[in-house]
Automatic annotation (TrEMBL):
Annotated organism of origin: Synoicihabitans lomoniglobus
Sequence positions bearing N6-(pyridoxal phosphate)lysine: K200
InterPro entries assigned: DegT/StrS_aminotransferase, PyrdxlP-dep_Trfase, PyrdxlP-dep_Trfase_major, PyrdxlP-dep_Trfase_small
UniProt KW Mitochondrion keyword: no
Name by which UniProt lists this protein: DegT/DnrJ/EryC1/StrS family aminotransferase
Amino acid sequence: MNASADKPAIAGGSPTVQPAPGRRHRWGGLELARLTTMVEQESLFYWGGPQTTELLRRFTALYPLEHCMPCSSGTAALHIAVAALKLPPGSEIIVPAITDMGSVIGILYQQLVPVFADVDPLTGNIDPEDAARRVTARTRAIMPVHLAGMPCDMTAVMALAQKHELLVIEDCAQAWGATWQGQPVGLQGDFGCYSFNEFKHLSCGDGGMVGTNRDDLGHGLSKWGDKHYDRVAGGRNPPTLSPNYRITEPQSAVACGQLARHNDLVATRRRLGLRLSRALAALDGISVAFDTPDTASSFWFMLPRLEPDAVRVSRNEFVAALKAEGVLSEGAYIPSPVPHYALFQNHDFFAGTWPLRDTGMTTMNYREVKVPQAEDLLARCVTLTLHEGLTETYVDQVAAAFAKLLNFYAN
């Protein structure tokens, strides 16, 4: 029987995390200075605006991409990249089964087919071997998602792409500052897409960036997010259909301030994330993803996984106990693999229909998609909040809370 002092807080013991983490301060003088300058401008339009011009300069200093389009969100960045590929309707793009809906919205709107691949059982990133099994004669691209700040195996992804002549769109929305073989993520594929969403490492509320080093894809890139207007030559006679995903000068001003914090912010997250990873890895009953010689995670959040039969309570009960200990935590990152979402199960993409399937341009049936590793990870993972506003004391207490609960609830 465990001593009373070791009882979980949820069962009447004392919380492990004390005091509770303080409020996170994300914006300050850097952002205010840019906004103060911005309100004195004659125009808040993005094209040629001083805030957006400076945003591009700061971004490309960190992520050397020759052709970039700042835009309204990370979802918009991905849609712009997909549209710029100019793929014929019915073409397939392979994506991981664990991701945000933002990864697939642009694919569907371009009348293309998301093909879901299973994931690595520990990182949740796309499994290149399973992706290879999903390649068909209609496959034209692959979209690796660097989940939770952990880079995908880009060597394997790029080898698969080369073998089958696939284009590569890197979804870097969750991976500011993460690196693959010493390079920032987003530089290996044909496109890199980034997010300034409220909940990402860097934020201006909502915003995004898409970039490429390919001249053939990069020339005129901004048209794909700006109604296909030609801002260089002028005029309003678009030759094809494109949405309006323009960023604004206020968004750019805040994002400029955030980019000035980029290196310090990432360094702090890495220090805290590595410290917590090592502590959790030393415990029985839980597994945690680690950097490899090729990767450096930027720890947007962490996804430790309870081992089978490690505890006598459910994952959700374990998370409830963690919360009672004061740990910033949730259950699964998403409720199910994306192909199991209702809209995919019902093929309800356009007012209850899916024109591609209804007209025979695809035979994809998402009710038949099997991704067992994604299902297993989401059933057993714990989503841990990690950000630069936390302290080493806090992450040490998180590890102590895990140790306490793993011992108390051990089978």
